[in-house]
Amino acid sequence: MTTIAIVYHSGYGHTAVVAEAVSEGVTRGGASPRLLKIENAAQDFAAFLEEVSQADAVIFGAPTYMGDISAPLKAFFEASAGIWMKQGWKDKIAAGFTNGLTFAGDKGHSLTSMVVLAMQHGMIWVGSAQPLGNVNGNTTSAPEAVNRLGYSMGVVTQSDNAGPDVTPPPGDRESARLLGERVAKITAKFSA
């Protein structure tokens, strides 16, 4: 069975909800998820770096703060420099997700930061492959719509100023599940 590492930071719990949905999708896709929650930028990342190195694929996640990924995920990225020097993650499948309060908030830049890291490592990036939000044949940004925010590079979710038990909405959570499932299935093809 393929293993997918899900490396993420969550400041207030909303991105953790998205990571859990990604994990459910990985399982739905027939792979074994490994949730790796980054607590802070100063932690020792050695175990997480090893987990990603051993996994068949990795999905990165972070909230978007001030138009970019949160500092703890950025610190993890910087800690991967030794692996980069040895091309240790070359040809590994990678994907990403981000969450934030606003509908835009430059979340595309957060995904771009993840893609650039993946490209630096020579990884193979997998996007969401979900068309713009659709409910019963109608394009919409309704809370139940999958990919209601219209991103293709990865999954972007939006959380209101409320607890993670109620936000992000169901369509955003399903978008995350679909990304996890897609990465699991693509990784299985590459691992065969």
Overview features:
single chain, seven-stranded mixed sheet, alpha/beta, 192 residues, 9 strands, 6 helices
SSE layout and pairing:
Blueprint: E1 3-9, H1 14-28, E2 32-38, H2 46-54, E3 57-65, E4 68-69, H3 71-79, H4 81-85, E5 93-100, H5 107-120, E6 124-125, E7 134-135, E8 138-139, E9 155-158, H6 170-191
Parallel strand pairs: 1-2, 1-3, 3-5, 5-6, 5-9
Antiparallel strand pairs: 3-4, 7-8
Helix pairs in contact: 1-6
Please characterize this protein's 3D structure.
With 192 residues, the chain is of the alpha/beta class. It is built from six helices and nine strands. It has helices spanning 14-28, 46-54, 71-79, 81-85, 107-120, 170-191; strands spanning 3-9, 32-38, 57-65, 68-69, 93-100, 124-125, 134-135, 138-139, 155-158. Strands 1, 2, 3, 4, 5, 6 and 9 form a seven-stranded mixed sheet that branches. Strands 7-8 form a two-stranded antiparallel ribbon. The longest helix is centred in the last third of the chain and has 22 residues, at 170-191. The protein is globular, with a radius of gyration of 15 Å.
Which of globular, elongated, flat, extended, rod-shaped describes the shape?
globular
* Helical content class: 25-40%
Number of strands: 9
- Give the biggest beta sheet: 7 strands, mixed
Number of helices: 6
Let me know the average pLDDT: 96
From the N-terminal CA to the C-terminal CA, the straight-line distance is: 10 Å
The radius of gyration computed from the alpha-carbon positions, rounded to a whole number of angstroms, is 15 Å
Which segments are poorly predicted (pLDDT under 50) over 5 or more consecutive residues? none
Query: What structural class do you assign from the helix and strand content?
Result: alpha/beta
Return the string of H and E elements: EHEHEEHHEHEEEEH
- Relative strand content: 15-25%
